[in-house]
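TA notes, week 10

Several of you asked for a full example with nothing omitted. So below is the full record: structure tokens for the whole chain, then the designed sequence directly under it. When grading your own attempts, check the secondary structure regions first.
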């Protein structure tokens, strides 16, 4: 099963006709293709990505064709029974956990790569792009400085980097995405990074879903993408201009329909990303065509008949946001 899902009318994997087609072919994936556009448009100094080790030669060739330099960091390998429960300092670990091996070792896995338009940026930036590492049951947490510098190299606006550092603490907040939501006056689809792992105009978590600096960068990227590959631009627009119910990062449902206050009439719904969560409520949502979101619960209706209720853990887990026109 493909982990990332997209709304109806969007292909499972978008294959560009010309521009950057080789990158998608090499990776066998269109995920975060917009980041390559951003680097080539000089809107992002550096990107990081993951490429299957057996596709690396093809990937490096594709990057070369577009004048992009590549640096390989290390090899990430899936270990289904990786037990991290007893690890000292486990709260510093990322949500995704992988076994790590040096480049050139004989494991089958995915290579963490950095890509940039200049060799200098690549050399200067790649040292900041490491993940917290557990060695012999102890975590080496990444320093705040390295996180900050990496955000700068990835081209994230300063307001968003600052915000992220103050509030992106999963141990402290039940839903870290609720904080940018609370700062939002009018959601702007160009700041919609809920769909960042499929199609979006930015990858970072913004300080608000109408952050001016993010919207500026995103609109320049959108212009570039519409120039190089208008069909891809249309797909990003389609994926970002939707309605979402957000339980927490990566636990997000997308809807097509009409919002009226805290009510939503919908005709389609999907779960964005199966990598970490199992889409617990998708069948309930699919049975209905209308819902109401309150601080305590989400009530699902078929027309006026109540079908089911989801009790919210906290008011902020399960907020609704609409990026529609
Ligand atoms: Zn911002």
């Amino acid at each position: 099963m493909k982990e990332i899902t997209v709304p109806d009318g969007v292909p499972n994997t978008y294959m560009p006709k010309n521009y950057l087609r080789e990158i998608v072919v090499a990776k066998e994936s269109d995920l975060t293709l917009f980041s390559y556009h951003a680097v080539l448009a000089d809107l992002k100094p550096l990107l990081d990505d993951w490429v299957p080790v057996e596709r690396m030669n093809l990937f490096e060739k594709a990057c070369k064709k577009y004048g992009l330099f590549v640096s390989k960091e290390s090899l990430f390998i899936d270990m289904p029974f990786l037990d991290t429960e007893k690890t000292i300092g486990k709260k510093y670990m990322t949500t995704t956990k992988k076994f790590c091996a040096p480049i050139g070792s004989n494991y089958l896995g995915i290579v963490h790569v950095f890509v940039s338009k200049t060799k200098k940026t690549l050399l200067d930036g790649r040292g900041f792009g490491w993940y917290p590492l557990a060695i012999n049951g102890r975590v080496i947490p990444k320093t705040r400085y390295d996180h900050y510098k990496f955000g700068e190299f990835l081209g994230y606006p300063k307001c968003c980097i600052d915000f992220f550092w103050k509030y992106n603490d999963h141990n402290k907040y039940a839903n870290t995405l609720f904080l940018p939501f609370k700062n939002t006056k009018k959601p702007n689809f160009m700041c919609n990074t809920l769909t960042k792992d499929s199609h979006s105009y930015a990858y970072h978590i913004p300080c608000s879903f109408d952050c001016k600096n993010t919207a500026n960068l995103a609109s320049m990227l959108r212009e570039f993408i519409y120039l190089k590959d208008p069909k891809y631009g249309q797909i990003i627009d389609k994926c970002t201009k939707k309605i979402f119910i957000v339980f927490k990062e990566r636990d997000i449902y997308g809807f097509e329909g009409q919002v009226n206050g805290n009510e939503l009439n919908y005709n389609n719904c999907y779960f964005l990303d199966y990598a970490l969560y199992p889409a617990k409520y998708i069948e309930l949502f699919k049975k209905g065509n209308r819902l109401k979101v309150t601080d305590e619960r989400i009530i699902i209706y078929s027309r006026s008949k109540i079908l089911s209720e989801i009790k919210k853990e906290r008011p902020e887990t399960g907020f609704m946001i609409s990026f529609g026109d």
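The radius of gyration is 20 Å. Use that as a sanity check on your answer.
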